[in-house]
Amino acid sequence: MSLNPVQMVAGGLLVGIGTAMANGCTSGHGVCGLGRRSGRSLGAVLSFMGAGFATMLLMTQFLGIGRV
Amino acid sequence: MSTPLRFYLAAFASGLLFALGLGLAGMMDPRKVQGFLDLFGRWDPSLMLVMGGAVTVTLLSFPLIFRRKSPLFDEHFALPAARKADARLLGGSVLFGAGWALSGLCPGPALANLVSFNPGVLAFVLSMLAGFWLYQQTARLEIRRHSHSPEQFAQETRALNDEQCVVD
């Protein structure tokens, strides 16, 4: 599978900075945090899901960026 | 005290099981993940079952696990102490969500996907490590700017790495 290198590098940087800032990702806040009924994790999950849907919409509908 | 071997064996078994689950569920395929995030386009809702299934397991099992005084193979549970959702948490999560959509990868599946030797996945993981480092450096600079003594600097940078974890 050949993946778009610009998207992989930009995505990797954002994921690295973002998860370090937020102390967690889909595993930490999503699977474990929600399981512990942590309000902080619920806030994180709603934020990254919302941002994920919004970014995908922006990419496909307005920026003409497709899937990797 | 040195960490007993069984701790590493348990960590290895957990990682193996986690990676197998991610692979079987399709989380390691960036285009499938992007299909899940494409809510207003060609939406593929199947990955909802992955998160839903995993959270069902933790919701049911964590209360039973935390009835114990300690984990099976360690002396204490290590849990985050922070309670409040602050701007750093929400802002970081927004950046993460944007990067997740752009690349179709999040940290766990990306690391598991290294075994595919795909150059795109390798580029993602190296950039992610650079991102961790960049944030770490920025946070250290900020602490240096406001700390009044070397002791305070040392204490706050340590807290940065230990991630406000309490040993329960």
Characterise this structure.
Chain A has 68 residues and is mainly alpha-helical. Chain A is 78% helix and 0% strand. Chain A has three helices and no strands. In chain A, α2 crosses α3. The radius of gyration of chain A is 14 Å and the shape is elongated. The model of chain A has no long low-confidence stretch (mean pLDDT 94). Chain B has 168 residues and is mainly alpha-helical. In chain B, 66% of the residues lie in helices and 4% in strands. Chain B is built from seven helices and two strands; from the N terminus they run αααβααααβ. A two-stranded antiparallel sheet of chain B has the order 1-2. The mean pLDDT of chain B is 90. At the A-B interface, α1, α2 and α3 of A face α2, α3, α4, α5 and α6 of B.
How would you state the average pLDDT of chain A, rounded?
Answer: 94
**Which value, in Å, is the CA radius of gyration of chain B?**
19 Å
N-end to C-end Cα span of chain B: 18 Å
Mean pLDDT of chain B: 90
Which class do the helix and strand fractions of chain A yield?
mainly alpha
Low-pLDDT residue spans of chain A: none
Q: Key terms for this structure?
A:
heterodimer, A: 68 residues, mainly alpha, 3 helices, B: 168 residues, 7 helices, 2 strands, 66% helix
Sequence-ordered SSE layout with sheet pairings:
The complex is a heterodimer of chains A (68) and B (168).
Chain A: H1 5-22, H2 26-35, H3 39-63
Helix pairs in contact in A: 2-3
Chain B: H1 5-25, H2 30-37, H3 48-65, E1 78-80, H4 87-103, H5 107-112, H6 119-146, H7 150-162, E2 165-167
Helix pairs in contact in B: 2-4, 6-7
Structure summary:
The complex is a heterodimer of chains A (68) and B (168). Chain A has 68 residues and is mainly α.
